[in-house]
Every structure is written in C-alpha cells, then in structure tokens.
Design goal:
It is a single chain. By secondary structure, this protein is α+β, with helices and mostly antiparallel strands. About 50% of the residues lie in helices and about 10% in strands. The chain is built from seven helices and six strands, in the order E-E-E-E-H-E-H-H-H-E-H-H-H. The protein has a three-stranded mixed sheet. The protein is globular. The relative contact order is 0.17.
Length: about 170
Amino acid sequence: MKKITAVLFGAAVVVAVGCSAAGAAIASSSSEESDDFIRSSDELVAAYLDEAEVLEADLPTDISFPEDSPYLVLPKGAVAESGVADAFANFYWLCSWEKSYLDGVHAGDVTVQADALDHIAQWPSQPFTKEHVVDPDGLWNTTVLEPALAGDPSAVAAEFESSCGAFTEANPE
C-alpha cells in the first residue's frame, strides 16, 4: 500500500500524495486497477467514516465529524490514494482541538484550554502522525505547540486559520 506523507513547512502542512489537483490528492485513473487507490466518492467517504469512527470518541464534546464533505468528492475518472481519507479525518481531529483551545482562550476558560492543549500535544505521537507526517526537525512542536504551552495562542491561531478550512466550513459559527 502506498503511504501518504504530510510534510510540515513551518506551521503549514502540505499533504503530498502522488499527484495533486483541486485541493485533493487525486490523479487521473489508469487502466491498471490497484488496491492502493480509492476509485469513487462513495469509497472515499466510507474510508473517511471508518477513520472518523475510530477518532470520534476523542473529539471535544461539542464537535462531531461531518457525514461527508465537498473535499471528499472525486471528479469523474479520478482516483485518490487510500490514505487521503485518513488524512482528512486526522487533520479534522487536530483542527477540532485547536478550535477548542482557541475558544477557551477567547472565553478565558483555563480548564478548556488545558484539556485542548493536552490533546493537541498528543498530535506528534498519534499513529497517523507518526506514520505519515514528516517533521524531522520538530518544527511543529517548536513553532506551534511550545508557544501555546507557554501561553501564546498566536501560532495555533495562525495554523488553524491556514490549515483548517474544511473544519470551519463544516462548523460555521
């Protein structure tokens, strides 16, 4: 099975998987069938829902995974690498905790902030992250997590703003 790889550049995350187009890791379908690819939007949503089910119990209480997303639609004749759905679910998990943290900061609720930071701090050791996210210099820890732990939410806010569009679309305020 091919692996997807998310590469950290500062606080921005780039998901690299074969070919990319229209914001999703998709490629034109070839005549060669392979188990490494998802070949329909229904398959993509099903794979995402499987991963979301695993992560659902660990979301903030006021957040849930959407049943589907416009980001989980494959154009006709396109394929997605099998890990794309897992990436979508796992980054949604991270965004949910970043949002919870930022809401706690805005409300001055140190209990919510602490709970959210405990979860955010788990990101580097999550199975998906360890398998697919390349951050050899620990830049995410030093540029996002450590400032937040020291009381500065600005890097989490910047990352949330730049990386969590699918989350904010699914959870409009």
